[in-house]
């Protein structure tokens, strides 16, 4: 069995995904229709399960889908946060956070399992006696499991995601208040302290905040899950003669060997500020016995160097599930593909390479362009309903959606928007390629620079969108409250995917793969999985620009001086002067002085160093967009190169190369099959 333990599972909505995987979509649509109800209206009532920040949490969700679809006996284990990632409102151009009370009306997909409740211990002290060590005087919190089904794709397999909720034990704090009159009421109120463990998801993406509550959450999920795994192991026969194992006297001798053979860890980032480093005194206070064990492991490590085993260090390129990210969110495109190569690609995404034979097929080119146009019209209607902005559906939909972070360089995108705006203003009678630039994503509530970046984007929009000289040739829209469900609408409607992080900073990225699979072309740096995307689709079929990792290293050695670029490139200087001089913030001229100061004097991510090549690359994008047939040919090569980026491939590699399991595409017999 494989146990995937994560602090985040960014599941989004469940209804439509379940219908797709169970092949029930048409039957349900029809049944609803006969009752005079509308399926889309029902789907829109479901809350997102937003138990994740971004890539890492969404990857866990894709992995659950793939593990079930590949017939692995897999369980996802995590925390049932009462409040998931905050809802983002834009008020006067600024991000405002709102609690995500996603359980307000209940959750029909979960089943509480109180019979599997587990105690988790905190604090206390250790007692060292001749017969061993005891951890005593601890505080106990109960972990109450909730199970959510995870159906595989049309194989009659259903796995489980088990999320733990924190509950105070009945006797919590009450032993202390025998002679204290007001003590009883306070003791009951203080039960909240224990139950706060599963109250809220920490909203940081790629950033470590060493808070005690977060360490409690981590230990809570690990302890409850390990107890559950051992309970399940005890009651499983696994071909042994005994009904249940009761003699664990030999377990201590085997514990280290068991750990080494059963546990694997995946690191998801290369940014140093994202790596966890806990203060020893905090750790000692919360988990005193565990710290002693960590010290003992470290002592042995220094003597044996047992970790220096190269086979334990592997890479696994991420992937996305084609069920949610193609069949479900883009049925029109899935249908056009199936008409050419059949439906097996949904299980075996490598088959998309058969589309290369159709790259010059006028009928396919026409069909793919038509689906894209339909998706754009549908999304334009959605935007006009929700944001009251008029969208030109013939413009290029240029989209950057991801968490707001300096390394993801939404600021570089802003500089292109301003440059393009200035060019149209300079020569208003030229034939410009019309663009609707959409940027969306949440900023961590404590990340001041990220919040300023959002304010800059909305400020640029206020100027650009109301300039009569520009008309509908350039629009800038900030997509509010970007989340799984909004991604499912925006990505199928996108023409251009912005993947423009500084080379060497994005460990993989998965949004890039979703755009590629949904018929967008990519403008990007040679960073993360963009490198492999260029390999699979052909570098000519992506718009690659900017420094490579070696160039970044060389620039670090030489020293990065932003002023050199500012002084050498007049269009860059103009854009920065406009930001600094209040052109985009007339009521408060110095609103963006911190951003300008950062870009000019301490920009870790070297925005100016890639500016010139980025603008030139965007010019190439504009030129190609004017030739729809050539554009769509490149789209076909991109879709055809997506096979590698299925999470089925990722999971098959984990299974064979790390877990020692063999995936299968066999179906179980359906429960109603009379065999």
What attributes does this structure have?
six-stranded mixed β-sheet, alpha/beta, transferase, EC 2.4.1.1, 675 residues, carbohydrate metabolism, Alpha-1,4 glucan phosphorylase, 14% strand
Account of the protein in words:
Its EC number is 2.4.1.1. Belongs to the glycogen phosphorylase family. This protein has about 675 residues and is an alpha/beta fold. Helix content is about 45%, strand content about 15%. It has 25 helices and 18 strands. Strands 1, 4, 7, 8, 11 and 12 form a six-stranded mixed beta sheet that branches. α14 (about 410-425) runs parallel beside α15 (about 450-465). The chain starts with a strand and ends in a 16-residue tail after the last helix. The mean pLDDT is about 95.
Share in β-strands: 5-15%
Report the span from N to C terminus: 28 Å
Low-pLDDT windows of residues: none
Helix content: 40-55%
Shape: globular
Radius of gyration: 27 Å
How many E-type strands?
18
The overall pLDDT, averaged over residues, is 95
The helix/strand class is alpha/beta
Largest sheet: 6 strands, mixed
Q: What's the number of helices?
A: 25
EC number: 2.4.1.1
Function: Allosteric enzyme that catalyzes the rate-limiting step in glycogen catabolism, the phosphorolytic cleavage of glycogen to produce glucose-1-phosphate, and plays a central role in maintaining cellular and organismal glucose homeostasis.
Family: Belongs to the glycogen phosphorylase family.
Keywords: Allosteric enzyme, Carbohydrate metabolism, Glycogen metabolism, Glycosyltransferase, Pyridoxal phosphate, Transferase
């Amino acid at each position: 069995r494989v146990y995937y333990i994560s602090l985040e599972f960014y599941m989004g909505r469940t209804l439509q995904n379940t219908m797709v995987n169970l092949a029930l979509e048409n039957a349900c649509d029809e049944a609803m229709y006969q009752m005079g109800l509308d399926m889309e209206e029902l789907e829109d009532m479901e809350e997102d399960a937003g138990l994740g920040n971004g890539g890492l949490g969404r990857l866990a969700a894709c992995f659950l889908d793939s593990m079930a679809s590949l017939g692995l006996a897999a369980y996802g284990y995590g925390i049932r946060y009462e409040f998931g990632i905050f809802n983002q409102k834009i008020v006067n151009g600024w991000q405002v956070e709102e609690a995500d009370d996603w359980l307000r009306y209940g959750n029909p997909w979960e089943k509480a399992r109180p019979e599997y409740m587990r105690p988790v211990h905190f604090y206390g002290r250790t007692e060292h006696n001749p017969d061993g060590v005891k951890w005593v005087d601890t505080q106990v919190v109960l972990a109450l499991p909730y199970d959510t089904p995870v159906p595989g794709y049309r194989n009659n397999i259903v796995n489980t995601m088990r999320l733990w909720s924190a509950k105070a034990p009945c006797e919590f704090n009450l032993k202390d208040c025998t002679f204290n009159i007001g003590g009883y009421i306070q003791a009951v109120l203080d039960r909240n302290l224990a139950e706060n463990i599963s109250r809220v998801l920490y909203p940081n993406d790629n950033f470590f905040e060493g808070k005690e509550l977060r360490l409690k959450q981590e230990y809570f999920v690990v302890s409850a899950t390990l107890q559950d795994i051992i309970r399940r192991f005890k009651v499983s026969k696994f071909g042994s003669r005994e009904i249940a194992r009761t003699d664990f006297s030999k377990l201590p001798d085997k514990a280290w060997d068991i750990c080494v053979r059963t546990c694997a860890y995946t690191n998801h980032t290369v940014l140093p500020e994202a790596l966890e480093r806990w203060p020893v005194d905090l750790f000692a206070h919360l988990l005193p016995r565990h710290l002693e064990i960590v010290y003992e492991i470290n002592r042995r490590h220094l003597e044996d160097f047992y970790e220096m085993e190269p086979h334990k260090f592997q890479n696994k390129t991420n992937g996305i599930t084609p069920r949610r990210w193609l069949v479900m969110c883009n049925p029109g495109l899935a249908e056009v593909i199936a008409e050419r190569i059949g439906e097996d690609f949904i299980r075996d995404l490598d088959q998309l390479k058969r589309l290369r034979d159709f790259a010059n097929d006028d009928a396919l080119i026409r069909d793919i362009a038509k689906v894209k146009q339909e998706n754009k019209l549908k999304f334009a209607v959605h935007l006009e309903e929700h944001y009251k902005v008029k969208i030109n559906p013939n413009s290029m939909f240029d989209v950057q959606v991801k968490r707001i972070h300096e390394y993801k360089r939404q600021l570089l995108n802003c500089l292109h928007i301003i440059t393009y705006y200035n060019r149209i203003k300079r020569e208003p009678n030229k034939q410009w390629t019309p663009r609707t630039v959409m940027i969306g994503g949440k900023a961590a509530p404590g990340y001041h620079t990220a919040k300023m970046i959002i304010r800059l984007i909305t400020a640029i929009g206020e100027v650009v969108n109301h300039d009569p000289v520009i008309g509908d040739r350039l629009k800038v829209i900030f997509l509010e409250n970007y989340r799984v469900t909004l991604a499912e609408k925006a990505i199928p409607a996108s023409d251009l995917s912005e993947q423009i992080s500084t080379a060497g900073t994005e460990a993989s990225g998965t949004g890039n793969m979703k755009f590629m699979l949904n018929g967008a072309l990519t403008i990007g740096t040679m960073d993360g999985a963009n490198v492999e995307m260029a390999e699979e689709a052909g570098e000519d079929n992506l718009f690659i620009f900017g420094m490579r990792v070696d160039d970044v290293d060389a620039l670090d050695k030489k020293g990065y001086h932003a002023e050199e670029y500012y002084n050498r490139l007049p269009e860059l200087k103009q854009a920065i002067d406009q930001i600094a001089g209040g052109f985009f913030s007339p009521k408060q001229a110095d609103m963006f002085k911190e951003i300008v100061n950062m870009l000019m004097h301490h920009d870790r991510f070297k925005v100016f160093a890639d500016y010139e090549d980025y603008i030139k690359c965007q010019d190439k994008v504009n030129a190609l967009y004017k030739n729809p047939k050539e554009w769509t040919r490149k789209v076909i090569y991109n879709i055809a190169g997506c096979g590698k980026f299925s999470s089925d491939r990722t999971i098959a590699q984990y299974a064979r190369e790390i877990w020692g399991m063999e995936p299968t595409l066999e179906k179980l017999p359906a429960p109603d099959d009379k065999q």
